[in-house]
Amino acid sequence: MLLHTIKEVRDQVKEWKKQGLTVGLVPTMGALHNGHLSLIKKAVEKCDKVVVSVFVNPIQFCPGEDLDKYPRTLEADEKLCNDTGVSIVFAPTPNEMYGNTPQRSNDFLTYVVPPFFYVNKLCGKSRVGHFDGVCTVVNKLFNIVQPDYAFFGQKDAQQLVIIKKMVKDLNIPVEIVPCPIVREASGLALSSRNKYLSEDDKIQALALNKILNNIKDCYKQGITDVKALKETAYNFLNEHHELEYLEFCDADNLEDVTTANDNTRVFIACRVGGVRLIDNILLGE
Ligand code: AMP
Q1: CA 142 → CA 12, 50, 76, 97, distances in Å?
Q2: Exposure of 64 by Cβ count < 10 A (0-12 exposed, 13-18 middle, 19+ buried)?
Q3: What digits encode the pLDDT tens for the residues 268-282?
Q4: 251-262 pLDDT, tens digit each
Q5: Which of 3, 51, 151, 154 has its CA 20 to 30 Å from the CA of residue 35?
Q6: Neighbours of 231 (CB within 10 A)
Q7: Greatest CA separation found in the chain?
Q8: Binding site membership of 39 for ligand 1 (Cβ less than 6 Å)
Q9: At CA 153, angle to CA 127 and CA 170, rounded to 5?
C-alpha cells in the first residue's frame, strides 16, 4: 500500500497496534537496490508489519549536493516492496514532512542535533549539517510510525552510530537493528549514487574496497600501527581518485584510534568521476 500522508500512516499503524502486531521501519531515500532489499527482507522476517519510507530528505543535503538529481524511482520501489511483503510504502512530499519551511532553516524548524564529537569527523566534516537533517527526519519517522524495530545499514556506519546515540540519549522506544553491507560481486558497495558512475568510474571505484581489504589483511598479519596501515592505501590510488578521508575509529563511539584492534572500523570517502563514494570495514570481522 502506497501512502503519502502522515495521517494515513498513523491510522493504519494504530490499527496494527490494537491487534498487538509488531511494526518494523526501514527508512530510505528510494532508488532501492539489493542493499536496501537486505534491510527490508530482515524487517519482514522479524516484524509482523513493515513500513518502508521513501523520502529524499531535503534538509540532509548540503548546498551544492545532488538533491535535485538524486534518482527517484518510486514506481519500481513500490513494486519491489510489494513483492517483498512490505505493508506500507510511505512516500511523503517535502511539504507533508516540513510544511512550507524553507530548506535547512534553523530559524523555522525544530532540529535534532547530534553531539558535535560524533559529527565533527568523517562525513560530518565536509557535509556540515547533514546529520542534523538525518536525525531530524529519522526522529520524525519514529514519531509517525512508532516502530518496534528500525533497520539501518552498516554502509552508513557513522549514521548508524549517531542514530543509536540519539535513540539512547532521547529514550526513544525503538530497537535499532544494524544490517551488514551488501556489495556487488566486484566488491563495490551498493549505493543509489552508483548510478552516476560510468563503467570506467566503476572500475576505479573498486579501489575503496581494495584499500579496506588490504588494510584488514595487513592487520590480520599483525600490523596495528594506524599510520603504517594508512600508508598501504596509496598503492591503490591514482589520478582518478580524490581521497576525502581514510580514518580509523572505534566502531562504537567513533573515537580516533592510533593502534588498531578488532573493534576498529576503517572509514573511507573518495570521489571517483566526481561522485562521492563511502565504504568501511570492521577489522575484527
Ligand atoms: P539511503 O536510501 O541511501 O538513505 O539508505 C537507506 C538505508 O539503506 C540506510 O540505512 C543505508 O545504510 C542502507 N544501505 C544503503 N546501501 C546499503 C548497502 N550497500 N548495504 C547495506 N545497507 C545499505
Answers
A1: 15, 13, 25, 13
A2: exposed
A3: 999 999 999 999 999
A4: 999 999 999 999
A5: 3
A6: 11
A7: 59
A8: yes
A9: 70
